[in-house]
Amino acid sequence: MVEKGLFSYRKFWAHRFGPSRFLPMSREEMTARGWDSCDVVIVNGDAYVDHPSFGAAVIGRVLEAQGFRVGIIAQPDWSSPEPFRALGRPNLFFGITAGNMDSMVNRYTSDRKIRTNDAYTPGDEGGRRPDRAVLVYAQRCREAYKDVPVVIGGIEASLRRVAHYDYWSDKVRRSALIDSKADALVYGNAERSISEIAFRLARGKGAGLGDLRDVRGVAVAAPPPEGMQVKDETRLPDEAEPQEIDKSRPYAIELPSYEAVAADPALYAHAARILHQESSPLNGRPLIQRHGDRTVWVSEPPEPLSTADLDAVFDLPYARAPHPAYGDAKIPAWEMIRHSLAIVRGCFGGCAFCAITAHEGKVVQSRSEASILREIETIRDSDSGFTGVISDLGGATANMWNLGCANPKAEAVCRRPSCLYPDICKNLGTDHGPLIRLYEKARAVKGVKKILIGSGVRFDLAVKSPAYIQALVANHVGGYLKIAPEHTEKGPLELMLKPGIGAFDRFRKLFEGAAKQAGKQYYLIPYFIAAHPGTTDADMLNLALWLKANGFRVDQVQTYLPTPMALSSAMYHTGRNPLKPVRRADAADLPTAKGLRQRRLHKAFLRYHDAENWPMLREALVRMGRGDLIGPGKAHLIPAWQPRGTGFGGEGRRGRGEPVPPCARGGKDAPRRRR
């Protein structure tokens, strides 16, 4: 691990200009600052909000603090290269990000339907960024200034650093580095790597990026360094020949090529498994993957920031507001996080469907108590709209602050995908005492009336500290608390790397007990995923029955959306389980809801109480031999009648209380045809 601090570089000469109120978005703003050019121009798929929750602002401010002049081109018209010339030719490079969200996830629902809104755009207006924005922006930057280096990053590029399954086209695509023709791709939290790239270019006076293979968190099109050992993982374990590797010396791992994983789902699952095994910044090795006659080199994962460096990033002079160019237009994503704070990065939960492990890593990075309290005071003093309520102290998970592995030797070699599954690791610290004390000090800040916890609470971790649950309920719940058990059935939960529903039951008991003790009436809002790989119709029925038995009527439900590089996406695409070694002899028989009708059925089970779903559910229950669940009693899941104006296929024309024909209910009169 490198001990060099993030801000230990000798500042670039342009630091004499000092920090900007906002990073400039126009030549007029540059001129007002006394600039004749920008050293770095960031092209961003989001509106420019100068706040530490927005990645482009963080990278821009970090580079500014290093002494570089940084400009922002936000949500440019991509129909021509002209908008990409708005700030002139950057002296060092273009930095490109699709924004805080993947552009495809941002624009399309899990059913591949176009969304009409975009929370990261003024006025919540949809359509202000292209599909696969990183590729499009990179092309336009090349057209604008063909000799300027292009560096792509952010979550969209990060999760596409190698060949990956693309849900929207239902095929395996090449690394975004290759498709964008970028000079480099930075992945994960990129403050270190982007600073190193900027200084190397500055020292080379813009002559080119040179060799970046030694920079962590970077992917480039280059072969492994001369003399580097390469471990061949291009074949499945039961098909590979023995290979001798001197593990006392550095070595890279070669994944199956793009062409191989695109043609062979088993090899795709194998590559996904290897990639996630090498995701730890403490022991991850470089990866290489061939794309035709080119090779993508992916260096080791980026180092986590120290608490001092993380504090310094959050202490940078953010305006904490959207750029004035947007006037009074509302930006929903900004409004949502305006009075919240991120206190951690990373997550050691390792959920198979989540992008955090692949992007930020499972080493939790915590800010200091002093830094967090300073930011609360900054919100209080700088935001005229602050009413005294902090909407969240969180991050990827609310209750991982100051937690981590208590055994550095074990952590240095650990390759567990999750510190919490199948059980909480014995080496993981679970003491929530420091977090409870942080909450107390945050509540005591002058001018603060309420501190809410809006991020997800990892409930299986929280039950290890009943005092935390008591403090949470007594002081930090605003009527309800959202948590994510995701499912009730063992099969899907094992593939998600989530705990059994018993952990939720224990948390619920402690939560309700604490609420009763505090004399408050609070509610848990559980989140569940429909149609996750490995989930059968019967699993969803059992979940629906559990929901009804426990009195839950969930409104916000999620149909599983495969995102690039997630382990669950590999399951969806291949029908195989990459959580264990992938062998040719194993059948690709993981049950997966892929058709639109089955995906909608799984979602309908979650909303069994919605009359619109009853016709579909009746048909499914009959097919599953569970017509006994259709009827008027408490033991039934759905009724046999259909309210007027609801349902599909004309069934909504019946009046309330009018029975559905027997063939829709099951029983002896139901047709016996195959479905």
The CATH level-2 architecture of the largest domain is identified as: Alpha-Beta Horseshoe
Averaging pLDDT over every residue, what do you get? 93
- Note the total helix count: 23
Quick one: CATH class of the largest domain?
Alpha Beta
| Distance separating the two termini | 59 Å
Structure class:
alpha/beta
Spatial ordering of strands, largest sheet: 3-1-4-5-8-9-13-12-11-10
- Uncertain runs are 649-675
What's the CATH H-level superfamily name of the largest domain? tm_1862 like domain
Whole-number tally of structural domains:
2
Helix content: 25-40%
Overall geometry comes to globular
Sheet-strand content, in percent, reads: 5-15%
Profile the largest sheet. 10 strands, mixed
Radius of gyration, rounded?
A: 26 Å
The count of strands amounts to 23
For this structure, the CATH topology of the largest domain is pyruvate-formate lyase- activating enzyme
Notes on the protein architecture:
Helix 9 packs antiparallel against helix 21, helix 17 packs across helix 19 and helix 20 packs parallel to helix 22. The protein has 2 domains: 227 residues, Rossmann fold, CATH 3.40.50.2300; 271 residues, pyruvate-formate lyase- activating enzyme, CATH 3.80.30. Strand 6 and strand 7 form a beta hairpin. It starts with 26 loop residues before the first helix and ends in a 52-residue tail after the last helix. The chain has 675 residues and is α/β, with parallel strands linked by helices. The chain is globular. It has 23 helices and 23 strands. The strands form 7 sheets. A 10-stranded mixed sheet has the order 3-1-4-5-8-9-13-12-11-10, sandwiched between helices. A 3-stranded parallel sheet has the order 21-22-23. Strands 2-14 form a two-stranded antiparallel ribbon.
